[in-house]
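Hi D.,

Good news: the full-assembly prediction came through. Inputs first.
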Amino acid sequence: MSGNTYGKLFCTTSFGESHGPAIGCVVDGCPPGLELSEADIQPDLDRRRPGTSKYVTQRKEADRVEILSGVYEGKTTGTPIALLIRNTDQRSYDYEKIKDLFRPGHADYTYAKKYGHRDPRGGGRSSARETAVRVAAGAIARKYLRVSVGIEIRGWCAQVGRMALMHGFDAPSWAAVRSNPFFCPEPDRVPELEAYIDQLRREGDSVGARISVIAGPVPLGLGEPVFDRLDADLAHGLMSINAVKAVEIGDGFAVIEQRGSEGRDEMIPGRFLSNHSGGIAGGISTGQDIYCSIAIKPTSSITTPARTVDVNGQPAEIRTTGRHDPCVGIRATPIVEAMVALVLIDHWLRFRAQCGDVETPRVLSN
Ligand SMILES: Cc1cc2nc3c(=O)[nH]c(=O)nc-3n(C[C@H](O)[C@H](O)[C@H](O)COP(=O)(O)O)c2cc1C
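Then the structure:
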């Protein structure tokens, strides 16, 4: 199974299964001299961690990260940084009953048919447990981008099912987003959100979500013509997160109804007049903030029975018990932020490598 490495200069190779002894990654290409310890990574893992409220899966993973290499006397050495997160709360018996059934909406069927031999426990390699690894690698990228380039990457939950929560890209209050486990920008609506999720749970159902991210200030010049456009790489990175079914950059699908007269980002001396394009033109960052959103599908493992087939192709019914997220979007914000960081650091290093000698342009502001 290949396809486990992301990035050209800042390369993250992820490994591990949901119910194996550990998951982890090797980050190769991190610039030397970055002050780094577990304390820089752990807070992001804690934000993604399961079991933090009754509205996420009750799997209780400590998600403690260990740095095994690449750091000496508190600073990165430029050598590969190996990160390890041990699995501590696996319950394989939850999966014993359904190991011969293909769970609809999961990777069971495709993995079984493609590879012929798979680890069914908790989805094995396809489990969203893998996203902890990106959050860990992304925390290194975020720190570098913050201290060396000045970029902050922040996300929020913009919609849960039919409940729209601060749509659009007017930056929410980050203190408000941090104040609740839903990453909800409107804390006074958290009780409404809780009631909505409680009701879904009672009905044995789940719902999807939208997560939005703003990154900025991003220097002009990140992104390459033509296949490695920054927007193309963001879409690739974000779409590689489990359960993500759509990525929008800037106005995204809203451009369908837009007219050219409103959608192009006009310029006057010193600044842009709008940012419909999400800070990217021709695949290259404009110097404006980068705006992107993802749509994440509803949790497939719910208690409402569903039709499926077994490994012999026979009809069967499946009803998933065990510990699941009623809305996988609730824990997704740190994952989306991490993936944006992994894309931006890779493009920053590529930009510096090729255009490091080009005089820094005077750019228009947002
Ligand atoms: C943070 C996060 C948590 C998730 N938790 C669950 C879960 O508890 N139950 C479930 O059925 N799917 C969960 N998923 C979604 C599955 O991992 C995903 O749907 C499955 O691997 C199939 O991949 P696909 O949806 O990308 O096709 C989660 C996804 C994310 C990002």
